[in-house]
Amino acid sequence: MFPDSPGDYDPASGCDARFNKLAAIHNRALKLMLRELRLRYPGRSLVYADVYHPIIRAVTSPARYGFGSTPLVACCGGGGGPYNFNYAAFCGTPNSTTCEDPSQFVSWDGIHFTEAANELMAHAVLRVLMSTSAEELSSQQA
């Protein structure tokens, strides 16, 4: 499951490049599906909110978003290694550890995001919803 060589990781983010590519494919397909649904159901509000890029930006520029210097290291885990992750030593298992300040991390346990990362994604979604609502209101009044 994990890449075997450092070349398998995105040099900018430190993420597994295969998963980044999969996310890009998924998001393109989702946008196409939304376009089709908008044609099929005119008058309905269907909004795409990008939560991938805010996380990538936070990982590549962690200080800018209030994260520490190792945002992808699992805050809670027992795996050691560069990401403190191991399928056999999840958060909560014997010998796992928890960081002192989860707000400095993007990854809670190597699988789930921290509250701080979820807040970043929520703000991204809300920005899209707020701007979409404003556009819809102005077009309805015209």
From TrEMBL:
Record GO terms (molecular function): hydrolase activity, acting on ester bonds
Q: What keywords were assigned to this record?
A: Glycoprotein
Q: Could you name the domain of life of the organism this protein comes from?
A: Eukaryota
Q: Write down the InterPro entries for this protein, in alphabetical order.
A: GDSL, SGNH_hydro_sf
The reply on keyword Iron is: no
Q: Which PANTHER family match?
A: OS10G0393700 PROTEIN (PTHR22835:SF544), ZINC FINGER FYVE DOMAIN CONTAINING PROTEIN (PTHR22835)
Q: What is this protein called?
A: Uncharacterized protein
Kindly indicate whether the keyword Transcription regulation belongs to this entry.
no
Which family, according to the similarity comment? Belongs to the 'GDSL' lipolytic enzyme family.
